Amino acid sequence: MATEQKQAKLKVGGVEYDISDLDDREHIILSHVIDLRQRIRKARFLLEEMKVAENTYASSLVESLSEEKEPEFITPTTADELVT
Fold it and tell me: What backbone torsions phi and psi does residue 46 show, to the nearest 5 degrees?
């Protein structure tokens, strides 16, 4: 009983191609497309992380600015610091 190996397929414009039938140039182009799609997914993921971090920092700033703060008094430690 012979087992049939499934050939990797590529569908472009509604037409299916066997990847093994691609020439060297087409393999390189396909590799670039695959790599770029992975990098785009990663960039979107990183952008999402950065947006969350930005929102967190912005919220922290708003919260900090809205808190009532005690006035700070500076007490000089030497007589020289008393003279302005």
Answer: -65, -40
Measured distance CA(18)–CA(35) in Å, rounded: 19
Both tokens assigned to 6:
């499934």
Handedness of CA 4, 7, 9, 14 (dihedral sign): negative
Q: Tell me how far apart the alpha carbons of residues 68 and 81 are, in angstroms, rounded to a whole number.
A: 29
pLDDT tens digits along 31-69: 999 999 999 999 999 999 999 999 999 999 999 999 877
User: How many helices and strands (H and E) does the chain possess?
Assistant: 2, 2
Distance CA 66, CA 30 (A): 54
Q: Tokens 């414009």 correspond to what residue? A: 13
Residue type present at position 69: K
DSSP-assigned letters across all residues of 56-78: HHHHHHHHHHHS--PPP----SS
20 contacts 8 by C-beta, under 8 angstroms: yes
